[in-house]
Write a structure and sequence with these properties.
Elements: H1 3-10, H2 15-21, E1 26-27, E2 33-34, E3 41-49, H3 55-63, E4 68-73, E5 80-82, H4 84-92, E6 97-101, E7 103-104, H5 107-110, E8 117-119, E9 121-122, E10 139-141, E11 144-146, E12 151-155, E13 158-162, H6 164-189, H7 200-208
Parallel strand pairs: 3-4, 4-6, 5-7, 6-8, 7-9
Antiparallel strand pairs: 1-13, 2-8, 3-12, 10-11, 12-13
Length: about 220
């Protein structure tokens, strides 16, 4: 399955479904939070490393292609490295989003854009434009490693990272999870309780008896 095929299939799901399919996949720290409301974040990582300076981000933006997600490792910077001008240009270029392990500014403008932007904090103080750092290298963003070309998938709950094999291997299971959830929600709307759709009672008894192998399942 090509990256384009995977992206199209993943867009019908959400990060939570992949986390339910594999609780060990890479999830960025909750400090990486959505700055603006809007559509899901889904695209391929274009990575940048910098520190209190955004010259390298301009370089990455200049090299970017539609569908890319700028993933920025600011190495603990306190200054904003992305604002309205970068975000407007990223949107104009057709990028899928921006994820900053660091600060942003101009959030009033950002809030009007469909382009998803995530950051750890906001500050009016911008970085310098005097230093070039590495681009398209492995970075640490939100406490997890991200390599160029990996899948970046986010919504208001947070952001996950998957390589192509992980995305392909987990896709069917994530689909099945969403289908079961839909069936459960439909049944609840028809008057059937959530608890009676699970093995809760037997699972509770098993846990009380110390059976560590017991699992809560939908029935």
């Amino acid at each position: 399955m090509t990256n384009d095929d995977l992206l199209a299939e993943m867009l019908e799901l959400d990060p939570a479904a992949f986390c339910d399919a594999d609780k060990t996949i890479r999830v960025m720290s909750p400090q990486i939070a959505r700055v603006n409301p809007g559509k899901k974040l889904l695209g391929l990582a274009r990575t940048v490393r910098c520190y209190d300076d955004f010259l390298s981000i301009i370089d990455a933006l200049d090299q970017s292609e539609p569908g890319d997600v700028l993933v920025i490792d600011t190495q603990g910077s306190t200054r904003a490295v992305v604002g309205e001008l970068f975000s407007l240009e990223a949107s104009r270029r057709g990028l899928a989003g921006i994820v900053i392990d660091g600060g942003c500014r101009d959030t009033e403008t950002l809030s009007t854009l469909e382009l998803p932007v995530y950051a750890t904090h906001r500050t009016p103080v911008s970085g310098t434009v005097q230093k070039l750092y590495a681009t398209q290298c492995e970075v640490i963003c939100g406490g997890v490693s991200v390599s160029p070309g990996e899948f970046i998938f986010g919504d208001s709950d947070g952001v996950i990272v998957l390589n192509q094999n992980e995305a392909s291997d987990l896709l069917d299971q994530a689909k099945a999870i969403k289908q079961v959830e839909k069936q459960v929600i439909d049944a609840m709307a028809a008057g059937k309780s959530l608890i009676e759709q699970t093995n809760f009672k037997s699972h509770k008894q098993a846990v009380e008896a110390g059976e560590e192998s017991s699992r809560l399942n939908f029935e």
